[in-house]
């Protein structure tokens, strides 16, 4: 009888141990996540409700107009160039604020006029975006920098379209546009960025 | 007395017999209970073994998942197909990205998921919705089963999708994710990005009587201006601008109707793109888009954008330009962080997306795809399978490019943002990398 009692006790302990071992694990991180769920999400299957889930594999036609944030058409966006040309004509000498910039290689690009602090900030943010591979974001910042008078931005805008630059950057998916790159390089050269000449020559050498 | 004694003796005997019976009963009870417990153990043993091996293709969740108020324990069968390993083993078998694997190894076909892949996009976001549809078409072209659904992609909604298993991919605004205080590990790690997508412009529609943002902020209708935010990105931007957003409970068209009726002060929408609701609104000239001047507060989450009448002829006059901001988008993998049994299945999805990406660059596809650099990085964890794919296609390391990137990261992390001197240094570094002087 003693043996039976002990056997029953052992079986009970074993059952408890196994129950504990197989009890589902709860991660503390998940518990801390739950308060983030503030409202239910109603996921609606769009097979019948929305065009995005059309059963056919045909792509949804995209309208031809360009969205905001995309770089302006080179042929149509003459305002920036006109603005730059006017600025260059009216103020051929560097203002005093250009003193900190009058050093190193960067000075050459600014010989005809210093960009505003705001333009330089946009330019720097464009370069940071480019370093991350965010080509579209870089173009947006560089466009604004060029509009605000930083002629170097035209040069780098050309780089963002230059197939050679994109390849060396390790870009995947996005395609270069040699014609658009050439256009930006030409505008940069006109604005005084001498290095743009080498880029144009490189495009010529590759038959672009 | 005798009788009494006899009676007492009998009573004592009776008591002794009763005690023995009770003792016997308790022993029998203990034995029965022990036997029942043992029998239960024996009966449960096969179930326990089944729970470990999950032979029918099911995989155990590594975190609690609730559906309809009940806790569910297993993933769908499709996730374990191909793995053919016990659930616990499958969890440990997540491949870690090799530093530079050979392209052939990285691009070898992964077992495709048998369950239909669900791509979620913000219902109000026209661009994201179209992109989700086109992504689904591309995945189908690669032989995968996929569907696009309209839903919410706010951080809380994505968190729910992660734990609720309601979607596999999401086209989500990164500004809202980055701005979310709750977006910390392990949530971030469970929703890594596959690719950074193009930016989407955010538009603020208001009556022309409200000239600018400053005037909008000064409106006092009760506690302040009533600005309806259509989508997570709109909410995030308004919060960044110091405006209290009113989350939209209805469609963009309905919100615009309320705006036209004067019931609300403004409507903010991201990625409206070619939405008919916005394209057809305000043709009487009573409304316009408010400019969002660039401020340092916007750095790190947004890019500038400039809208013209070409973009919104109904809301921008021919001679006007409207400064706006654009929010970065990303393709997010749901519940695909390291340690998740789902992660290996994403290799097939990533391979299909990257290999068939050219389809999305076609003229009839959404123009935003043509701005996408699949290798672009974001301040967010990257899906290991995507990182591996990109690394497999990268060439030899370029010291001057690395130098440029290091300098850019250093400048980006400075307080107050970059200045003119930083711009000079970065430009010089870029020119050195490209092999020409400025």
How many DSSP H or I helices of chain A? 10
Q: Helical content of chain B, roughly? A: 40-55%
Task: Please tell me the overall pLDDT of chain B.
Answer: 78
Order of helices and strands of chain B: HEEHHEHEHEHHEHEHEHEHEEEHHHHH
Largest sheet data of chain B: 10 strands, mixed
Unreliably modeled segments of chain B: 1-13, 42-59, 75-107
How large, in whole angstroms, is the Cα Rg of chain B?
32 Å
Low-confidence stretches of chain A: 24-111
Strand composition percent of chain B: 15-25%
Question: How far apart lie the N and C ends of chain B?
Answer: 131 Å
Strand count of chain A: 1
In the CATH hierarchy, the architecture of the largest domain in chain B is 3-Layer(aba) Sandwich
Q: Count the domains of chain B.
A: 4
Structural Rg of chain A: 31 Å
CATH class of one domain in chain A, please?
Answer: Mainly Alpha
Would you write up a description of this structure?
The complex is a heterodimer of chains A (208) and B (438). In chain A, helix 5 (117-131) packs antiparallel against helix 6 and helix 5 packs parallel to helix 7 (152-161). Chain A has helices at residues 2-21, 28-33, 79-90, 106-109, 117-131, 135-147, 152-161, 163-169, 178-190, 196-205, and one strand at residues 44-45. Chain A has a domain at 113-205: Tetratricopeptide repeat domain (Serine Threonine Protein Phosphatase 5, Tetratricopeptide repeat), CATH 1.25.40. Mean pLDDT of chain A is 66; it is low at 24-111. Chain A is mainly alpha-helical and 208 residues long. Chain B is α/β, with parallel strands linked by helices. Chain B folds into 4 domains: 1-53; 60-198 and 330-393, 3-Layer(aba) Sandwich (D-Maltodextrin-Binding Protein, domain 2), CATH 3.40.190; 200-326, Periplasmic binding protein-like II (D-Maltodextrin-Binding Protein, domain 2), CATH 3.40.190; 399-434, no CATH class. In chain B, strands 3, 4, 5, 6, 7, 8, 9, 10, 11 and 12 form a 10-stranded mixed sheet that branches. In chain B, strand 1 and strand 2 form a beta hairpin. Chain B starts with a helix and ends with a helix. Chains A and B meet through helix 1, helix 2, strand 1, helix 4 and helix 5 of A and helix 1, strand 1, strand 3, helix 4 and strand 4 of B. Strand 1 of chain A pairs antiparallel with strand 4 of chain B.
């Amino acid at each position: 009888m003693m043996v039976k009692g002990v056997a029953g006790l052992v079986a009970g302990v074993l059952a408890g141990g196994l129950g504990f071992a197989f009890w589902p694990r709860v991660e503390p991180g998940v518990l801390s996540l739950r308060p983030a769920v503030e409202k239910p999400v109603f996921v609606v299957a769009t097979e019948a409700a929305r065009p995005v889930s059309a059963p056919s594999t045909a792509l949804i036609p995209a309208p031809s107009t360009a969205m905001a944030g995309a770089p302006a058409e080179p042929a149509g966006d003459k305002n920036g160039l006109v603005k730059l040309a006017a600025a260059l004509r009216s103020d051929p000498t560097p203002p005093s604020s250009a003193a900190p910039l009058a050093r190193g290689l960067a000075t050459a690009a600014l010989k005809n006029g210093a960009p505003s602090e705001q333009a330089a900030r946009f330019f720097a943010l464009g370069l940071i975006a480019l370093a991350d591979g965010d080509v579209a974001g870089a173009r947006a910042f560089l466009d604004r920098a060029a509009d605000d008078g930083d002629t170097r931005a035209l040069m780098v805008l050309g780089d963002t379209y230059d197939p050679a630059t994109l390849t060396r950057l390790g870009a995947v998916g996005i395609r270069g546009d040699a014609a658009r790159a050439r256009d930006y390089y030409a505008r940069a050269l006109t604005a005084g960025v001498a290095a743009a000449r080498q880029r144009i020559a490189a495009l010529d050498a590759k038959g672009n | 007395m005798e009788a009494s004694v006899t009676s007492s003796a009998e009573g004592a005997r009776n008591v002794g017999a009763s005690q023995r019976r009770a003792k016997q009963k308790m022993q029998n009870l203990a034995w029965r209970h022990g036997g029942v417990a043992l029998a239960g153990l024996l009966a449960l043993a096969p179930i326990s073994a089944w729970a470990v091996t999950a032979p029918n293709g099911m995989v155990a969740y590594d975190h609690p998942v609730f559906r309809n108020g009940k806790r569910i324990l297993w993933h769908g069968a499709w996730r374990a197909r191909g793995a053919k390993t016990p659930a616990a083993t499958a969890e440990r078998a997540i491949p870690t990205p090799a530093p530079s694997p050979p392209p052939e190894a990285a691009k070898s076909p992964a077992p495709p998921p048998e369950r239909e892949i669900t791509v979620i996009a913000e219902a109000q976001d026209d661009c994201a919705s179209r992109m989700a549809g086109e992504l689904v078409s591309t995945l189908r072209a690669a032989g995968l089963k996929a569907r696009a659904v309209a839903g919410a992609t706010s951080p809380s909604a994505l968190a729910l999708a992660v734990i609720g298993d309601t979607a596999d991919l999401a086209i989500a605004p990164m500004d809202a994710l980055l701005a979310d205080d709750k977006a910390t590990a392990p949530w971030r790690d469970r929703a890594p990005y596959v690719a950074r997508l193009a930016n989407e412009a955010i538009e603020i529609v208001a009556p022309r009587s409200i000239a600018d943002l400053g005037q909008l902020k000064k409106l006092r209708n009760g506690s302040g201006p009533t600005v309806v935010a259509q989508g997570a990105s709109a909410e995030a931007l308004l919060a960044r601008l110091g405006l209290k957003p009113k989350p939209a409970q209805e469609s963009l068209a309905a919100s615009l109707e309320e705006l036209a009726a004067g019931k609300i002060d403004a409507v903010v929408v991201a990625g409206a793109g070619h939405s008919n609701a916005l394209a057809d609104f305000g043709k009487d000239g009573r409304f316009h888009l408010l400019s969002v001047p660039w401020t340092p507060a916007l750095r790190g989450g947004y890019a500038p954008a400039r809208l013209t009448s070409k973009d919104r002829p109904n809301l921008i006059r021919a001679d006007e330009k409207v400064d706006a901001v654009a929010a970065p988008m990303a393709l997010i993998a749901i519940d695909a962080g390291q340690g998740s049994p789902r992660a290996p299945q994403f290799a097939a999805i990533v391979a299909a997306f990257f290999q068939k990406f050219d389809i999305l660059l076609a003229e009839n596809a959404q123009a935003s795809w043509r701005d996408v650099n699949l290798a672009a990085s974001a301040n967010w964890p990257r899906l290991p399978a995507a990182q591996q794919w990109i690394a497999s296609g990268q060439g030899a390391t370029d010291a001057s490019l690395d130098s440029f990137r290091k300098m850019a990261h250093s400048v980006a992390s400075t307080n107050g943002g970059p200045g003119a001197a930083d711009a000079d240094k970065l430009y010089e570094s870029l020119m050195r990398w490209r092999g020409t002087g400025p």
